[in-house]
Amino acid sequence: MSEISMNKNTMSQKISQDNPKAFKNPWFLGWMALLAVVLAVNIGFISLAFITNPGLVDKNYYENAQDYEKNLVKYRAARSALGWTYQADFPANPLINKKELYRLSVVDKVGQPLTAANIMVNVYRPSDASADFQATLSEVGAGIYEGYLRYPLKGIWEINVKIQREQDVYDFTRRASIVTE
Fold it and tell me: 142: exposed, middle or buried (C-beta count within 10 Å: 0-12, 13-18, 19+)?
């Protein structure tokens, strides 16, 4: 009788297909490991999608993609020919529903402040186009532009800044993560 009870105790202690306890059965453990791997991969892909994709679709995507490389080379050459450089002083962690100061300093290719430029800021939220908004930065000094932005929702926002003086255009993009207090 003691041998039978001893076999039952050792059986419940070791990992075996014959073990009736789920956490000691290799089939159950294998399925749980497989499920954990699938969930981890899905979480990784979802995170990657949110981090990298701006979420916007161009209405004329086919036409714009036809000459994409040629247009990109032209765009880079024109931007390089301008020689403008900028220093963006944007808040590191803007707060939801709080006015935040955005300052931009721009100089031309000889290092002189870029004056009389029109600075347009297009702010869009990849997950909700209805929350998108625009703002302009006003010139407060020679080549220094400032403006206030207020984000109505928390989350990731794309900030597209377009600097234009006469026919010359220079633009850049920044990403902001809006947080609650």
Answer: exposed
